[in-house]
Amino acid sequence: MTLFNSESQHREKATIWRVMSLLPLAASLAGGRIFRWFAVNIPMQLVSDGEFISDIDIIARLSDFPRSRDWLTRTWEVKVSLLCEDGSARSLKAGKTTRTINQLNAYRSFGSPEVSLLDTYVCEAGFMAKNAFPPPLVRASIEAKLPRLAEQGFGYQLLPFEHGKAGDEDVGLLAMPQGVNPLQTSIGILKAVPTPEGEGFGRLVDRIDEFFVEQPDRPSKSFHQVVFCMKCRQLQLVRMRDEHLCPTCGSDLIVQS
Predict the structure, then answer these.
(1) Among 21, 65, 83, 93, which one is least packed by beta carbons within 10 Å?
(2) What separation in angstroms does the CA of 39 have from each of 27, 199, 226, 235?
(3) Comparing C-alpha atoms, which of 210, 211, 233 is closest to residue 45?
(4) What does each C-alpha distance from 36 to 62, 93, 149, 164, 224 come to in angstroms?
(5) pLDDT score for 180
(6) Across-strand partners of 169?
(7) Where in the chain are the domains?
(8) Could you tell me if 130 and 78 are in contact, meaning their C-beta atoms sit under 8 angstroms apart?
(9) Coil, helix or strand for 184?
(10) What distance in Å separates the CA atoms of residue 221 and residue 146, rounded to the nearest whole number?
């Protein structure tokens, strides 16, 4: 089944998984910085003792230099919309901006120092050949969110991408390069205003980093992602391009809820 036609209850996690499995999409989130690791769908409860119950969709630990010990950590709340070949849109989350702002505030209250909204647009095969981005309905949705996101200092990025279709399978990748960097496929609308890092978030990042460092050396470890298995309640390091089953218990990491 293609990502565009995937089941709605699993589409957000499946989209995050797809973004993290494709270097031109994942690297775009690093904003030109070197990434040590990305972590996906990480529960705050790992370190919060029940005080914070949200999951963080994406965490990135970044640096400006290969051997730098000065780390920058960013987080994203991910929303997914569908853009159809005829230019129409589905699942734009119209009228849900307040709920989204509340989710971003939960990240900040937990102590994330740079919080952004990542609106991903999964395009049906043929959309980009026939339509400009963003189409009118999407533009209106973006413009409605901007003032509230800017007022509270949240970042905002757009990530439209399209796969070709071979039967019921996705093939290839079409994205919209931004500027001269071929890996800068996301569209930066707002930069997050940094805030002080909180204790809870700092402990969570330290735990993820310790787990990452402790994993056996393997080629291209930085292209593996840290995920959390809800069944065996453990952090796992997987290569999302090739793996979707938990290495410990065999559970499907995408359809877990």
Answers:
(1) 65
(2) 13, 18, 4, 10
(3) 233
(4) 6, 32, 28, 31, 10
(5) 45
(6) 166
(7) 8-25+75-196
(8) no
(9) coil
(10) 37
